[in-house]
Amino acid sequence: MALFSVKYIKKRKVIIMSRSLYIPEGYKPALTLRETQHAIKYIKDIFQQALAIVLTLDRVSAPLIVSKGSGINDDLNGVERKVDFDIKEIGSEAEVVQSLAKWKRMALYRYGYEPGEGIYTDMNAIRRDDDTDNTHSIFVDQWDWEKVITREQRTVEYLKETVKNVVKAVAYTKRKVSNRYPQIAGKICDEPFFITAQELEDMYPDKTGHERERLITKEHKTVFLMGIGGKLASGKKHDGRAPDYDDWSLNGDILVWDDVLNDSLEISSMGIRVDEAALAKQLAECGAEDRMQYKYHQMIADGTLPLTIGGGIGQSRLCMLLLDKAHIGEVQSSIWPQDMIDKCAENGITLL
Question: What is the pTM of this model?
């Protein structure tokens, strides 16, 4: 693990940035740059078809920007700055999306979808405050999906069933990739191990959240870590989640062991979405009751919006996992710190 810090001057202030970059010993890409581009398209074609089949989803178009102040943009952990700008034509401001967690539920209502039916879309976003490393980029690309469910399906059992179907689509795609590119060996474990964040904290009380994820994923290879967002027995959260889309008791992350990075890799965050009771409880816990001024939140509270399950699956993360890549920048074009570009180049990692 190579750790390094960077100093630079901006507006006469010295800003210290700390990043971590993992360089696998003896790393050599299995595919050329051109082969990689072909493989990326192949993965995206295969996986989205498989996902649509196992979850019964239609592909729809989705926005890159939404109106500022609409309450539709994803607030993530509530502290990340959104990219915003004014629009001359309409005299107001817009924001680049951070995800489509809320927009999808509104779309299901507008399009008239029924229980058992859903949608998926290609989501491109900018998260300007994300730290860049092997698996994080300020440019985010994922398959965002959402499906209408009944109140009776708001259960842990239904959540687990859905997770298994998503994992099956991932494992199927990996088999297809390995058949086409025999030099990329290995397979994805298609039987996820289920564990709650509280159970994991109980197992490793002295470890950080990521350290716990690494230990459990190294053992079980494919893991669904459930119950993320609320405080654990320690008084700490395993990780942050916005209070107004996932129900924190019915959500989780799909983690897969990455042999190249020698670490766990989160490829999906998903869950059953809040109903009126979960929304009120979680907003109160976060002191965010002011969000009830927005139409989206009011439509959940009065039962207008359908009950749903949904999530996001990282396109670039899935590609780097299935193609044995060491850095997300090998499968997507983005902006990287110059010192990271240089360090990667010295070690045979070409960032696009």
Answer: 0.89
Q: Domain 33-346: give its CATH superfamily.
A: Bira Bifunctional Protein; Domain 2 (3.30.930.10)
pLDDT tens column, 285-331:
999 999 999 999 999 999 999 999 999 999 999 999 999 999 999 99
pLDDT band at residue 9 under the 50/70/90 scheme: very low
User: Concatenated DSSP letters for 102-161?
Assistant: HHHHHHHHHHT--TT-EEEEEEEEE-TTPPPSSS--SEEEEEEEEEE--GGG-SHHHHHH
Q: What is the mean pLDDT of the chain?
A: 89
Q: CA separation (Å) from 109 to 5, 57, 102, 103, 291?
A: 47, 15, 11, 10, 20
- CA distances 64 to 4, 21, 125, 280, 329, Å, are 34, 30, 7, 29, 21
Q: Which residues are catalytic?
A: 74, 127, 142, 253, 266, 269
Question: Comparing C-alpha atoms, which of 105, 144, 70 is closest to residue 303?
Answer: 105
Q: How far apart are CA 87 and CA 93, in angstroms?
A: 6
170 in Cβ contact with 318 (< 8 Å): yes
In contact, 197 and 255? CB cutoff 8 Å: no
pLDDT tens digits for 303-314?
999 999 999 999
Domain parsing of the chain, residue ranges: 33-346
